[in-house]
Write a structure and sequence with these properties.
Keywords: Membrane, Transmembrane, Transmembrane helix. The strands form two sheets. A two-stranded antiparallel sheet has the order 1-4. It is mostly helical.
Length: 402
């Protein structure tokens, strides 16, 4: 019995998700637009502002410095999230529009999911549980969430084509009031009062999740009050597509992240580029090792330019045999980070953004449905693959390899 209680306590948000949707089915008048809760004000502004204030308050910008120089990881995660995934889903959805009878609003919902930024927490939790590159996962989750505030609305306007959406300038104003300003205020609060409030142990994460449940409740109250009609087969198809899509994205990230490049190219970016940056920065310091007098024959430069393999200088190795070999770009710890940060999508940021942009649209419930499915699916799938990925990572580390 206690194990059931512990399980419910750990997964209270998923339980709450079922409860609020069921409650909205029973009493839709409570949270519908113009109803008792007046969600057009309390949800659209108050709940959304609370979520993003907490996001700003919880965003540990000082952690950026721990992983900021891992450019390859950042470019992979953000490029995969905001370029490759929307492009792939756009092609698939266009095909489904032409050759299937699935509700077009549910298909637009798949596009909505593809435009979402990575979540702030779930990917980091999984990477930490496995033992991957946690610092990079923290940086990219925070960076992706911040970029998503600006990039996601533009992608939604470009790809979803909801004709009765909020006009662009009105959306910018609403986003500024509901999203950007609360984040800035949260960052200021963290800077000046965080030390005073941190010992209080306020469950900011739970408060944010509760506000998200309120938004979902109001969304489904509007849905059930309109008595919408949609084929259950379409809903089932979308659920299957979301699950298969996540598995496909995980597989694609795994394949792409394990691609190899010519060793000479990797050496160029690992040695020459940082060296040029160091020389440029140190020009202003005459006493620096890389000052104006440094040349190709200087010991510092010669050490930087000497080919190395496995941390050992090999000046006598032939170029053809050594530098035209291929090497893997990412370590296994990095790949763990890429697997989750590149494929997870944020419900916490996504639903509030959708509420601001398309909250008044009569088909909002269908457009947001795939995202509501994607969130618990990524948590469940992540939990299932954790033991397998951990074994894969530890097997490599047991051999003393990166």
């Amino acid at each position: 019995m206690s194990s059931w209680v512990d399980g419910l306590r750990r997964n209270w948000f998923l339980v709450g998700l079922v409860v609020v949707i069921s409650l909205a089915r029973v009493v839709p008048w409570l949270g519908q637009t113009g109803g008792v809760l007046h969600p057009e004000y309390t949800v659209k502004y108050l709940a959304v502002m609370v979520i993003f204030f907490i996001s700003g308050l919880s965003l540990r910008s000082e952690e950026f410095s721990q992983a900021i120089m891992q450019f390859r990881i950042h470019m992979f995660v953000q490029g995969f999230t905001f370029i490759l995934v929307p492009s792939i889903v756009m092609v698939i959805v266009h095909f489904l529009f032409l050759f299937t009878s699935i509700d077009p609003w549910l298909l637009r919902g798949l596009l909505v999911v593809s435009c979402m930024p990575p979540p702030v927490s779930s990917a980091v939790i999984l990477v930490k549980a496995i033992g991957g590159n946690e610092a990079a996962s923290i940086f990219n989750s925070a960076l992706g969430s911040l970029m998503g505030i600006f990039i996601t609305p533009m992608l939604l306007y470009a790809l979803v084509h909801v004709s009765s959406a909020v006009p662009f300038m009105s959306a910018v104003i609403s986003l500024s009031i509901s999203v950007i300003v609360p984040i800035i205020v949260g960052q200021f609060a963290r800077r000046f009062v965080w030390k005073a409030i941190e010992p209080l142990g306020i469950p900011f994460g739970d408060i944010s999740s509760a506000m998200l449940l309120l938004i979902i409740f109001a969304t489904f109250c509007d849905t059930f009050s309109r008595q919408f009609i949609v084929a259950y087969g379409d809903i089932g198809t979308v659920i299957v597509m979301v699950v298969l899509g996540q598995l496909g994205l995980l597989g694609l990230v795994f394949v792409l992240s394990r691609m190899v490049v010519p060793r000479v190219v990797a050496w160029y970016y690992a040695r020459i580029v940082p060296l040029l940056v160091a020389i440029g920065i140190s020009r202003a310091s005459p006493g620096s090792t890389f000052g104006p007098t440094a040349g190709p024959s200087s010991p510092a430069l010669r050490g930087r330019l000497t080919p190395q393999v496995d941390g050992v200088n090999n000046p006598n190795d032939s170029f053809a045999s050594e530098w035209l070999e291929s090497i893997q770009v990412f370590s296994r710890g990095d790949i763990v980070c890429l697997l989750f940060c590149s494929t997870h999508k944020s419900l916490t940021l996504g639903i509030p953004l959708l509420k601001v942009l398309f909250g008044a649209h009569p088909q909002f419930h269908l457009v947001s449905f795939p995202l509501l499915v994607y969130h618990p699916t990524q948590i469940l799938l992540g939990g299932l693959v954790v033991p397998m990925v951990r074994r894969w990572l530890l097997q490599r580390r047991g051999l003393g390899l990166p």
